[in-house]
Design a protein that fits this description.
By secondary structure, this protein is mainly alpha-helical. It contains 7 helices and no strands. Helix 2 packs antiparallel against helix 7 and helix 5 runs antiparallel to helix 6. The protein is globular.
Length: 188
């Protein structure tokens, strides 16, 4: 895990930069951000549903199992249409979905931190993991607290998440270039 992160430091840098940009947009234009999230998710569900149906038809042509793909595709298209028709309830569902995503991401980051050496920025992954878990819990406890506030929470989270990833990327870049990261001072 450590070698992969060191060699691909630039991926963390890009993730961090995109998170910072997304965070700024969420803070400065909360209404647009949430409308866009619902719209993008609706489009994704419909496109994914169409592709699942195509895969199901192709599987049927080859006499393979196809029923599950067709059902999945139909459900995806219906879900996308519902999101377009009733964006309010969709947004509440999206809040709960984002909460679950944040919790899963937080757990994954904490697991990754265990495998990353302390000198290479383990605390940064731990901080991101805790931040993700906190966001997830807040979204589950107060999903209707306010659409604008949700955008601000997501924006703040994305900003902090992005900054921490950028810092980690530059630490790992030094390792990739062969320059060891400065060791933290040891206190006795």
């Amino acid at each position: 895990m450590q070698g992969v992160l060191v060699r691909n430091w630039w991926v963390l840098l890009l993730r961090g930069i995109f998170a910072i940009v997304f965070g700024l947009i969420s803070l400065l234009a909360p209404g647009i951000t949430l409308e866009a999230l619902v719209l993008i998710f609706a489009i994704y569900a419909i496109v994914d549903g169409v592709f699942a149906i195509i895969a199901g038809v192709r599987a049927a042509e080859r006499h393979e199992r196809w029923g599950g793909l067709i059902v999945e595709g139909i459900l995806g298209i219906v879900a996308g249409a519902v999101m377009f028709a009733w964006p309010g309830p969709t947004l509440i569902f999206l809040v709960i979905f984002l909460g679950a995503w944040a919790i899963v991401t937080g757990v994954a980051l904490l697991v990754a931190a265990i495998r990353l050496h302390r000198l290479h920025g383990e605390w940064l992954l731990i901080a991101n993991g805790i931040l993700s878990l906190l966001l997830g819990v807040v979204l589950f406890l107060w999903p209707i607290a306010g659409i604008v506030v949700l955008s601000w929470w997501i924006g703040f989270y994305a900003l902090v998440f992005g900054v921490l990833l950028v810092v980690l990327a530059f630490r790992l870049r030094r390792l990739d270039a062969g320059t060891p990261a400065a060791a933290p001072p040891m206190f006795h």
